[in-house]
Amino acid sequence: MNKERNMNGGNGKKEQLEQFTTDDRNQKMTTNQGVKVSEDEFSLKAGERGPTLMEDFHFREKMTHFDHERIPERIVHARGFAAHGEFQVYESMKPYTKAGFLQDPDKPTPVFVRFSTVAGSKGSGELARDARGFATKFYTEEGNYDLVGNNIPVFFIQDAMKFPDLVHALKPEPHNEMPQAATAHDTFWDFVANNQESAHMVMWAMSDRAIPRSFRMMEGFGVHTFRFVNEEGKSHFVKFHWKPVLGTHSVVWDEAQKINGKDPDFHRRDLWEAIENGDYPEYELGVQMIPEEEEFRFDFDILDPTKLWPEEEVPVKLIGKMTLNRNVDNVFAEMEQAAFHPGHVVPGIDFTNDPLLQGRLFSYTDTQLIRLGGPNFHELPINRPVCPFHNNQRDGYGRQTINRGKVSYHKNSLAQNTPETSTEEEGGYKHYEEKIDGYKIRRRSDSFKDHFTQATMFWNSMSEAEKEHMIEAFSFELGKVESKSVQQQVVDMFANVNTELARGFAKAIGAELPEEKDNKVTKKSPALSQENTTKSPATRKVAVILGDGFQDTEVKGILEKLSSQGIQTEVISDQLGMVKGENQSELEVQHTFLTADSVLFDAVYVAGGKEEDKTFYKKAAYFVQEAFSHYKPIGATHAGGKLLEGANMDESPGVVISEDAETFVTKFTEAVAAHRHWEREVI
């Protein structure tokens, strides 16, 4: 009887909901007001390469609805972490820009930086294969400047009109809300196959760049083309880069999946601990600049957000350094309430007609209105500028300013027409005067139509190990796709990038192998390969496996020497407390084999202990074997050497065994600096 009642109740609820249920299949697209839509790919612009127009009601409706889809968590970039710091320019950039914070090498500018994943919810793991947000707020004396970018220099789409579609496709599928923080599902790859402008970004997303070792070892890019404008009104097109001083490094995919289980807070913990330890993350700010008169001299459109400017053609000029030196005091008040916006600029920095950037200039303010409850999000402490602000805006949710007086309009005589505007000479912001001449049109410039050349250049630039990782990434992602049609569409699409790549993952997923394509692109950009990045042992974490009876005098000396190289060591044993050496000196154990894992460390040093039994060495062997399979540096002295020899690791690249402390430290430090040893044959 109860069962029958429950079934009827369920059916009653279903009937109640059916009046609101719709099936969009086989229907004509309309706006929410019922107006039929003639074009849903391109925003309305003043000419094919012109700016997006405010009168585009379809774009504004579509983007507004998208911006307000989640409350209060960010729709994208929900999972993140942040820190405070400062930026200092190396030399005056006055010839290129009048931006005040880029003038004085002796004057630091406070900054706040938020790193994030894109696709996952606030509670998702941090080692998802995903782009990473890299958003920087400069608190300048001329107002706040937000450089809102990613760790990948290009994007999936060319026009902001497509952004809601992209995110809908990569988010968990709406019928079952799966999978979380992952693109390995049908709707994402269906979007890719049917929106081939995504080819270049997908190549980056399938590369090691999408699974960074840490926020501290991750590049940042402004993605879009902006403008520098100097005091004479001269304009340069500019792209922004953040170059980590420690180099750009990644984890391997198997390792990433395990880290998400072992420590889903891995990236934020790494950032927090580095700052707490005084190992302040550092990034150099670089700019690529193109004089306005050279806008059309390249074989790609410099306003296309799916294209990068190869560093070999447009060198990156390093102009300053950012140091993150203070953790947040309260995650919600600072990190969660931080409101970034690419439209927050200062005099000397301006926009271009990049159609994706143009849409973001509308979308970000719109998003903050719903996420932070109203128009006064700029008054929250983390968002408040360091310079005073005065205008006639009043009231609204969350208002903190108490305005005196009766006047709140411009122009006026009751307050002597104050607050008054500033001239350009007084620091008033003046938009760059660009001539616009074109029809109002929904169309994409023909110069945006090449979707594969730079994707191929990216493939050509990778090392053999990186290429193999990309084939494996495609194989994993598409192996999770259920639709055979979508799988084949993606194979056929990426055959336009490189036949070897497409055939590699086609074979893995059982798809039809594509025919050889006549792809004549041989161009490379060595700067794109992580094999060519800075390699340093500094701040690398080494797991030190110790047992009772270890060679305490020698081992302590080795640990001190490793520390002097900037390497961090943490002792692992079979129980917490103190581990005793053969001379009865002690070292504290930070982790047991149960509470630690090799995936949480950059390298392993095995010293062992004479008094330990087979159970200890069995656990140690498992720990070391996993690190070995992830191509990590492994070192051993004393009893540890026998363990590696027994596992046939002793002659493998990146494995260092020595009884001489000086020799061991030198060679092991070199192995740690190398990050990974891809030439190793994994047992």
From TrEMBL:
InterPro entries: Catalase, Catalase_AS, Catalase_clade2, Catalase_clade2_helical, Catalase_core, Catalase_haem_BS, Catalase_immune_responsive, Catalase_large_C. Keywords: Heme, Hydrogen peroxide, Iron, Metal-binding, Oxidoreductase, Peroxidase. It catalyses: 2 H2O2 = O2 + 2 H2O. There is a cross-link at H341-Y364 (3'-histidyl-3-tyrosine (His-Tyr)). Heme binds at R74, R114, F163, R360, Y364, R371. Belongs to the catalase family. HPII subfamily. Decomposes hydrogen peroxide into water and oxygen; serves to protect cells from the toxic effects of hydrogen peroxide. This is Catalase. It comes from Gracilibacillus ureilyticus.
